[in-house]
Amino acid sequence: MKKMLLTLPIALMAAACASTGPRYVAANDPGDFGYYESVIDKNRYRVAYKTKGDEAGLAKDYALLRAAELTLEKGYDWFEVVDRDTDIDRSENHSHAVASMRVHATTYRECGVLSCRTVTRPTYIEPGVAETRHANRETTVTLIEIVMGAGQKPDGGAFYEAHGLVKTLRDRV
Question: Model pTM?
Fold first, then answer.
C-alpha cells in the first residue's frame, strides 16, 4: 500500500507532463515540429521553428532561443536577425478527383514583417498514394536568418546578446 501511495503521485506527474509534452525540441527532419537550422556561411545560419496550431509568438520566441543557443555553441557572443518570416498554415481539406489525379486545396496565411495574406494553392495527389486527412489543421513556422559576431554587440539593428537572450527565453520555456 505504501508503495502504491508513493508511485501514484509520480505517475500522475508523468502523465501530466506526457499530455503536454516538451514544446521546445529539435526536429528530426525539416518538416517535423521543433527547431532546425541550416548553414549559409561560416557565421550565417537560417533557423526555423515549427509549432502546432496558430502560435506565431511562441514560434518566434523558440526560433530566437535556438538562434541564441546556436550562437553560443559556435563560439560567438551576439547575432543579428537579417531576415525573418512567419507562416501560419491553415490547411483545409477540399479534395476532389480531376482526371486521374486528386486535387487538394491548401489554404494558409503568410506573414512578413509588415503584413499578412491568405493564400490557397492546389496540391496534386497521384491515385493510390495514401492521403492523410486532418480537418482544419494549423501549423506555424518562423524562419529567421542570422549573422553571428563576437565581442561588443553593435548598436541599432536587430542585434541580440546571446547569453542574456538564452536566459530570458529559457525562463519562459
Answer: 0.63
